[in-house]
Amino acid sequence: MHVDTPRHILHLAGMARLAGGNDAAFRLRLRRETALFHYELRDLEPGAEQVEDAAAFISAISGILVGEAEARALLTLYPEARIRLAAYRDTADVEVRETLAFCVAHFFLGCRWPSVHDRLDHGAFLSLLRDQAGLAGWRCAPPAAVDFLLDGSAGHETPSEESLPPSPTRR
């Protein structure tokens, strides 16, 4: 999920007016189409299997043990992730992965999921993320069980709902 500053949006709009049909106008059109996509599909809900897949993906990238109930709660709090998951029906889609990663990072840390361009210590980020999740009462896997990449290349096994310890929403 990209959130721009008001200053940058006004700059884009000014550039679009000056150059007509340029990259700035294209970016604004894409943002408008994205907003309409979400508006039109605002009532769409993912199925149980999709929510389970989202829980497994979030657990794999973050090390936070997320079950179906927690995943459903996060999807309620982050409707863009819920809508994309329901519309694209698969956590293999990169846009779905990005929105799921955003929701877990934003929920616990108030920031987006890091990209390769951020050039930060991924281990330090994941450690802070797990620390904050733990302080909020969520259970975490050992650091070695985490696949930070959004491309799913490591393919770690994620615990099933039955094997997860109690969490804030399953007490």
Ends distance:
31 Å
Summarize model confidence as the mean pLDDT.
Answer: 81
Largest sheet: none
Structural shape: globular
**Beta-strand percent range:** under 5%
Sequence stretches where pLDDT stays below 50 over 5 or more residues: 152-167
Order of secondary-structure elements: HHHHHHH
Fraction of residues in helix: 55-70%
Q: How many E-type strands?
A: 0
Structural class, judged by helices and strands?
mainly alpha
Can you count the helices? 7
Radius of gyration: 18 Å
Can you walk me through this structure?
- The chain has 171 residues and is mainly alpha-helical.
- It is built from 7 helices and no strands.
- Helix 3 (48-62) packs across helix 6 (94-109).
- The longest helix has 18 residues, at 23-40.
- 27% of the residues are buried.
- The model is unreliable at 152-167 (pLDDT under 50).
List the helices and strands and how they pair.
Elements lengths: L5 H14 L3 H18 L7 H15 L5 H10 L1 H10 L5 H16 L12 H14 L36
Summarize the structure.
The protein has 171 residues and is mainly alpha-helical. It contains seven helices and no strands. α1 crosses α2, α3 crosses α4 and α3 crosses α6.
Give keywords:
0% strand, single chain, globular, mainly alpha, 171 residues
